[in-house]
Structures are given as structure tokens and as C-alpha cells.
Predict the structure.
Amino acid sequence: MADLGQNKLNKQSLDSMEKYFFAYIMENPKFFHRVEPMSFKNSKIKFIYDKIRDYYLKQDKPIVPSNPKIFELIRLHDPDGDAIATDYLKSMLSVDIGNLVQGADDDYLKKSFYSWCTSNTMKSQMYQAIDMLRDMNEIDYNNTELVAGKLREAMSNATLMNYDDEDLGLDFFDPESHIQNTEESKISSGWSSIDELLNGGWSRKTLNIIIGGSNSGKSLWLGNVGVNAAEAGRNVLYVTLEMADKEVIKRMGSKWLKIPIDNYDEKSKDKIFMQRKLKELTTRSSLNDDNIFGGSMGQIFVKEFPSGTCSVDDVDNHIKHLEESKGIKIDMVVLDYLTIMAEKKGDNSLFSNGKYLSNGLRAIAQRRNLAMVTAMQIGKDAQNAPDINIQDMSESKAIFENADSIFGLVRTSAMRLENKYILKLLKLRNGAFKWEKTSFDLDPNYLSIINDKKLDFNS
């Protein structure tokens, strides 16, 4: 349906659209700072807009002039009405943007206006760029660097305009800015001790990393993190780069549906049985919900990418596609795991690649207001060790710098026999170290991490 709006835009003459753009700016005067008079091809509209804009920008406290004031401004420069007739001026000042046929697209005018602004800005910047290139002395290093910098700035100005959706940030003196809504900003880990350590759970807009040795159970932990978040009513995307998507579903299903992992393959083929288990899950969620309408349970989606091929953009685009297709908001992304993502093109250094990946994932978390939880492997020297430290991170220190929280997964051979884990806090950007280590039990029948218990600093 969105194509209908674009077709209508193509059918509209630029002249007829410009009067609506003019009216849109009059209702949204911040655009006086951004839209130059030369953007209007209609000479009459350009004349009127130029005088109004000039008046607006010269005021100490800018306000859009009243209609009588606009008549005065125009007649000051066109006393006999040779350029702008009174009837034409009246018609321009009475344009109703609501009369523009929008069809199925409610944002038709807004989108058209943004396209018009961006197009004009890009053309203007490109003309300036061409002039710079013509004057550039190719053998003068300083001049070349100066021109290159101006070109980068010009292209940035042309493509990064934010318009109406610009986030001006929080106003310190607005009481609303100080409200700390932990119910919305935090996502429960599912373990009371970890929630206490994290001051309520995983924070939105953060990158969180679990590090551990090979075959230490990193994927098992990530699966538990995802299921626990969904049980808390959050929608989860699990991105798997190492394990097949069906295997991830099996592991998470064993924990959440209470189906023994050793029987899962056989039970999964019984469609009636699986339907009943899924219904029991939703019923259990409703009974545990204070909401009389029930339905507090979140959803889980599993997406598999081949190892080494998934980029930061792939993750971002899949979130967008999933949210648009399902009509939901993704609250958490669990990515298994960070250091087997696609490397940065043209630079294979650990520092550069680690910085690129961790920066990118954290940017997704911030932009999409979600918690990003992932994992990475420790160095070989620390495998099966009774303790883990930051120095054991096998990859770039840039990952450590970008992460908001880092936990070390400790599991010795003796702990394996006893189905025990220790999770050690290594970094917490926001908050104090209340304690370092927490012990857990593994229920091998359902692959559930349970029985969390705080350990003192001497443990």
C-alpha cells in the first residue's frame, strides 16, 4: 500500500506540492533553520518564504509572524503587488495540509517533505563538492586533506538529517526525566542473586558478555538467559552462529516445556503431545500473572546464521524484519556468540575486529532499546582453571571496554562431576561489586541452571 503514496507523489506537480511543504514549515518552524529559500522552485513561494524566514531568524525569541505581519513584510518589499498578488498571498497562508490526499499512508506528507529536503540538501552539497574538487591542487597534501575533510562533512550533512524525529535528550529540570522505571528498563535474569547484583536485571541499551572455556556450557547458559527473559514476559531473539537452530529449540524446549532432554527427540515427533505441552506453558503463564487477562509470557525466536558470515548489520536487519513481520518489540537479543561473527573487512587485527563487533552490537542495543547478551571464549591457558580473570579474555581489550557487564563461567573437572557452576562478576559498568561469585546447580535432565547462591569474596 505504501507504493500508492509514492505513485501519488510522482503524479503531483512539484509546484502543487511546494505549497504544502511551505505550510508544513509554517506549522513546524524549526525547519526555517534547515530549509533554504532556494529549495523552492516556485518563484512566488520562494519570495514569500524568504521574507518570512528572514524575519523569523532575526528575532531574539523566534516566533512565526502573524498573517497581518506577513502581509506587512511582503508589501514592504513588493508594495504594488507586482510579484505577489494579495489573493495569491491569502491562498498560500490558508493552505490546509489536511486537504492533501494521503491515501493509505498516514505519513505521506511527512515522508514527501523529508524526501524533498534530503534531495535539495544532497544536490546543494554535491554542487559544493564539485566546486571544491575543481579547485583542489592534487599535489598539495595539506590542500587535499582539507578538501577531503570538507567532502566528508558535506556528505554527512546531506545524509544524516533527523528532522521531526530528532531526539533532543533529557531536560534535567523536567521531573519526568528523573523517573527510574526499572520495570521497563530492566529484564529479569531469572536468578534472584544475579538480579540483585545487576540492580534489577539486565539493563536495556547494554552489551553483556559471558566468557568461558571451550565446552564449558556457554550456549547452555545463553539458552537459560533467553528462556528466563521470556518467562518474565520479554520477547527474545536468539541468534545462533555455532549450533543448529533445531538444537537450540530442543535445549530451550527441554527447560521451558519440562521435557527431559534425553526424550526430546522422540517426544517432539508427537504433535498432539507437543501441542499439549505448549498449551500448559501458556496456561501456567496466565495463572502466574496478576493480569486478569493473562498472557504475560514473552516469545522466543531462533535465527541461525552460518558461522563467520553473520555481520552486525545482519543482526540489526533481522531484528527490524522480525518486529515488522510479527508486530512485536524485541526486548533481548541472545547471540551465540560474538567472536565467531563476520570479521571487519580489510582489517583482521584482534583489537580492530573486537572493537568493531562490540561497538556494533552495543549500538544495536542502544538504538533498539534492548538488552544484548552474548558470549566469548577464554584463552587456552585458562581452560578448566578454578578461577577466571579479565586477563583470560582471549580477544581484544576493546571488547572489555565496550561491554557493560562481563561474567566469567568457572567449571573445573570436579565441578562437572557434581553438576556445579560458578559465575564470577568481572565487570559492571553501572553499579558496585556487592560480591564476585555466585554458585549454581545444573539440572542435567532439563538443562536448567538453578539454585543460585551468593559466595563471599574468599570463596
Remarks:
- Residues 19 and 91 are 10 Å apart (CA to CA).
- Confidence is low (pLDDT under 50) at residues 1-12, 160-164, 289-295.
- The longest strand covers residues 420-428.
